[in-house]
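Working notes for the structural subgroup meeting. M.R. asked for a predicted model of this chain before we commit to crystallization trials. I am recording the input and output together here so anyone reviewing the notebook later can reproduce the run.

Input as submitted:
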Amino acid sequence: MVFSSAVFLLVFLPAVLLLYYTVPDCLRNPLLLAVSLIFYGWGEPVYILIMLFSTVFDYSNGLMLEWLDRRGRPEVRKWVLVLSLAGNLGMLCFFKYTDFLISSVNALTGQGFDLVGIALPIGISFYTFQTLSYTIDVYRREIQAQHSILRFGMYICMFPQLIAGPIVKYRDIEKQLGHRPIDAARVCRGIFRFTLGLGKKVLLANNCGMIWDEISAQQGNTAVTAFIGAAAYMLQIYFDFSGYSDMAIGIGKMLGFDFLENFDYPYESGSVTEFWRRWHISLGSWFREYLYIPLGGNRKGLPRQMLNLLIVWSLTGLWHGAGWNFVVWGLYFFVLLAVEKLFLLDRLKKAPAAVGHVYTLLTVLFSWVIFACDDIGAAGSYLLSLLGANGLADATTVYYFRENFFLLVIGALLSVSFARKYLSRKVNLIPDERIRFGIKAAVGAGLYVVSLLAVIGSSYNPFLYFRF
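Returned structure, recorded in C-alpha cell form:
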C-alpha cells in the first residue's frame, strides 16, 4: 500500500485515525503496530516475517549489549555488535544484491548461472538502517536499550516512514514512544503537511514523470528536448521523494510524533557539498555518522579522507539500487565532492552566487540521468544528446516546450523556497488568526480534493521506492 493510492486515502488512513483518536492512550501503541503490519503486508504478506525477524533480532541485541555492559564485558559487547552488523547487512545484501552479483559475474565471465529471482522486500533498506542505528547507539552507550518489545516493534514498523523514509533514529523519538500529546493544532498542521506532500507527488511528480518517460524512450533526442526530459525527471524525483517525506512527517504529527526534516530546498544549493546537506538529510546524516566518521572522516589526512569518501559514496550508490548505474552515480558524486574539497569549493565561494547555482544544477541534472537509466549505455546516449550529439533542436522540441512549459516553470518555482516564503509572508500579514486559518484550511482542502481526483482518474502513479 502506498500513500498516493485511493485505498490508503479513502479507507486506511481515515480508519486508522478514527481508531487512534478513539482508543485509550494505553492502546495506541498496540493499535499502531497492528495497522502498520497490515499496511506493510497489504501487497506481500510473507515479507512481514523478514521485518519482524529484524525487529526481534535487534531488540535482543540491544538487551544483550545492556546486560554485558552491566557485567563489564566490553570484549563480548563488540561481538554482539558484529553479529548485529553481519545479520542485518547480510540479510539486506541477500535480498537486494544476490541477483545483481550473479548477473555481474555472468557478464564478466561468460557463465550462465541462474538468477535466484528473489523479490526485494519494500523498504528493507530503510528499516535495516533504523535497526542498525539503534544497535550501534546502544553499543556506544548513547541510548538505553528499549525493554518493551511493543515499543521497539512500533518504532521499526511504524507505517508513516516504513517504506519511503525518512530514516528515523531511535534516539530522536525515544520519548515519544511512551507518551505523545495530541491536540487539534498539531493534527491540523499534520493534515496540511500531508496534503502538501500528496499534491507534490500526484500533481507535480507524476506529471513530470510522464514527460521523462516519453522523452527518455525516444532515440536521437536533440539537446533541448533531452534537457526538457532531464529537467522533468529532476523535478519528478524531488517532488516524489520530498512529497513522501512531507506525507510521512504529516502523518507523524497526526499521530503525535515529530520526525526530523528530510529535504531543505536542495536545488537552491551553491555547491554539490551543500546539495547533499539539503537532499535526503536523514540518509546523508546516517552515512556520515555511522560510516564516514567511524572510518576516520577527515581526521587522518587527505589521502585517507579521499578513501573514506570513496567508500561512503560507493555504498551510497549501491544503497539506492542494485545496478551498475547506481555505482556509477555514487562514484560520480564522489569525484565532484572530492574536487570540491580539494580546491573547487573555495573558488565557488569567491565567485558570484549564480555561478555556484548553475554549476550545481547542471551537475545534479546529469547525475539524475545516470540514476534514472538502468542501462549504462542508455545513460551515456542520453548524456550525449544533452551535449548536442543529435543537434540543438527540432520540431519535436517545439512541441515538448509548448506542451510542458507551464508545468516545468511551476515545478521550478515550487522547488525553491521563494514561493513558500512569499505566500507565507502574505498570509501572515492578515491580522485575524481565524482568517489565516481559514485560508490555509481552504487551500489544504482544495489541494486534497484535486489530488484525490488525480489519484482516482489516472493510472500513472509510479512508486520510485521499489528499489529500496
